[in-house]
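This entry is passed on directly below:
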Amino acid sequence: MTDQPTSPTPLTSMSLEDAHTSGVYPKRALTIVRGQGAYLWDSEGRRYIDCVGGQGAANLGHAHPAVVAAIQNQAATLISCPEIFYNDTRAALLEKLTTAAGMPRAFLCNSGTEAVEAALKFAKLATGRKHIVAAKRGFHGRTMGALAATWEPKYREPFEPGVPNYTHVPYNDLSALEAEISDQTAALILEVVQGEGGVRPGDGEYLRAAQALCRERGAMFITDEVQTGFGRTGKLFAHQHYGLEPDLMPVAKSMAGGLPMGACLIGSRVGTLEPMTHGSTFGGNPLACAAALAALEVMDTEDLPGRAAALGGWMLERLADLPSRFPEKVREVRGLGLLLGIELRNKVAPVLRGLQERGVLALPAGVTVLRLLPPLVISKDDLELVAQAVEAVLTQSV
């Protein structure tokens, strides 16, 4: 009898990836092999509290039973079905998603950057204009249109000349918007909380005034909810904190419980979109739609937005004294719901390493901001352990 093939050892897994991956991802020396709820396990069997949260894709936690069951059932029924045909699972999702968002239509796709690209294209189609206004420190994706809306020069400059007619203005500065948005502006695109740009919440008055300015001057108001959507900030969508009514709303990340999926929600101010003006081979595939239906049901039945509001408020209060306790190391603690940022006075990389050593995985948001994106199912006890780990790392010389 021949020997059964064995799984690669941890070292072999890392070596294989290093040999064959594109090279565009900075990798940590850690092989993750399993997840459950708010925990991840490495190839050596060590458990970690996950505050990376799939970079925002794991709001429901890892391997949520309802999502697993939905995927298994749908995979045995129908996986692929392009939108040239109708599909029962897709129809059910479209109804549930648009009702939850209070927006009548949605374009289904596979990722956040695709959802942003759709929003930008639809804004140009709806207005007949070319100019896009975005915010400094904003992040909207890495494909060419979304990249043009992204502020950070290191992401854009290697690919210039990029898509023309994009302008960036300071965030939370209404006078800058008033000076820039004109009768040639197709859209203003803003994050309600700037995630990659340092976990910077928008001011409610600013956001409402920005929306009003778009209405006044005929531009589309786009709220990028790719990271802030699906309960992350304490509401199903972050713009609901401020009573906003976006014309276009890109969403993705945790939309399908961790399966790749995105959507651009479309408001009533966007007119008829003609066939063939946009499309996606895999967009709205039944497998992702089934997972998204299950994820939305879990959001509702487990009240994950409410859980994020309560736990996020507690965690912000728990960490609030870090600047006074560590004035030489911490500038500010900020966030909304369970989208949390700790701005440091030095680089965040040593803190990330220190947290990993203590069993906590976290993210940067720029060079000096520690970002915490735990699954919304995380327990208060585990958040306390995260807070203690942060304090322990800061107590050391970093």
In short: The chain has a mean pLDDT of 96. The CA atoms of residues 175 and 302 lie 41 Å apart. DSSP finds 14 helices and 17 strands in the chain.
